[in-house]
Amino acid sequence: MAQNKSQVFYNEKRQPLQLGALIKSGGAGSVYHLASQPGSVAKIYHDSIDKALYQRKIQAMLQHVPDIPPIAVAKTSLVQLAWPTSPLLNTRGEFVGFVMPELDVKLSIELEYILQSRQAEAAKLPDGIGVKVSLATNLCTLVAALHQQQHRIIDMKPVNLRFYRESLYVALLDCDGFSIQDGGERFPAGQFTAEYLAPEFQKTGKVPENQEEWQDRFALAVILFQLLNFGLHPYSGRPQSSKMATDLPGRIAAGCYAYGLTANKLMAPAPASMHTLLPNELRLMFDRAFGPLAASRPSAREWASVLRPYALPAQKKIVVCKTNKRHQHFAGLACPECTRKKQIQEALRAARSAKRQAPPRQVAPAYVPPPRPAPTPLPKLTMPAFVPGVALHTVFAVLLPLVFAWLFSQFASVTSLQIGLSTFLSMPWKDQWFMGVMSIIYCSIALVLVLVFKWAFSSIVRSKP
What we know:
- Keywords: DNA-binding, Membrane, Transmembrane, Transmembrane helix.
- The protein has a 6-stranded antiparallel β-sheet, with helices on one face.
- The protein has 11 helices and 17 strands.
- The chain is elongated and about 155 Å long.
- 37% of the residues lie in helices and 15% in strands.
- The protein has 3 domains: 1-68 and 81-103, Phosphorylase Kinase, domain 1; 105-348, Transferase(Phosphotransferase), domain 1 (Orthogonal Bundle); 387-462.
- The chain is of the alpha+beta class.
- The protein starts with 7 loop residues before the first strand and ends with a helix.
- The model is unreliable at 381-387 (pLDDT under 50).
- The longest helix has 34 residues, at 429-462.
- It has helices at 51-63, 117-122, 129-148, 212-228, 248-253, 280-289, 300-311, 336-357, 387-414, 421-425, 429-462, and strands spanning 8-10, 16-25, 29-34, 40-45, 71-73, 76-78, 86-89, 95-101, 108-110, 161-164, 170-172, 180-182, 185-187, 238-239, 267-268, 318-320, 328-330.
């Protein structure tokens, strides 16, 4: 939630602090300039954050500060670590955030931009293996200082790292998201990125407290490999099996590091990789970092000691390319940029040659649907097939009620319906017998007529024209 600039906050010495403009807002809180304290910024946590937990964590960070002071370069103080310098309190004395030094974002840029040559050129960054080795050395020195205080970064990746364009010093932001050690209590990190998560944690997605340094060592090695090999991830490449995972986390979990001194049976190197032009000393370090034993991964301090001689011009372990003065390469090895450019040109020529030699493409004839058969005409209704049947049924349906009425009148005239019961009983037995037989005959005829009428009427209903 945005804060009112007129609202006053206080540091731990109860000195008032006036907020300035909003710099950015993230998942945990918002960062503001401090109008009353230039060179510092304030991070204010959102209301949904557990402030009691973060208050204890910030207090632990204030008690265990890494030995990474700002560096003075040309009268400018370069901040390498945005570490808390004081808790931030509201007017009621409640903890709401912290104060930290301001990192100059105009002089620095994300490490992501220098990994690939095109991005570096677009951002007008110095590009070359010498620059990248210097960045790698400075990054390892920074991480080693953090580890000395038993702090861990966990979510270490290029987009979370910045470096100064001129001096090549590296800076770390969002330090309150690190895993912080305070005596017997550890405040864990809040998140991680799967593409930089060590193999042993890929399935569970959790980093145990006693193994957090193995995670930092793995993520650091991935970033160093990307710096020294044109941005390629160490687990990218060409799968040698259709069953191989296509995503980086799946390949990390399967141990598919394709750039070791010993070939990987599951994964072949990417064609654009220049890992063979790295010194064996560095390749052995990468083999350890991406090998099966987490405890064998080189520490940040070990990486720094191995890389530092390459970063010193006096050691002459990196020399200028004789073909292109803008390129650099490791002494005794070919220029990776020239080699890569040559590979790309050869691949393009091979593709053009294959296209010229390819037989003309056979174009399939257009699909022509088969002619549809003529519809079979329905049989025409004829007079013998239709009219006589319906007419006959209609005649029966009309005449039968009339015949039935006539029979009923005859039956009534000859039976006892028109005389009383006493008169019928006083008649001779012959007349009684005659009237009984006639009644049975008339009733039978009536029943037959009813059935015939029903059949005729049903036939008319079921008839279809």
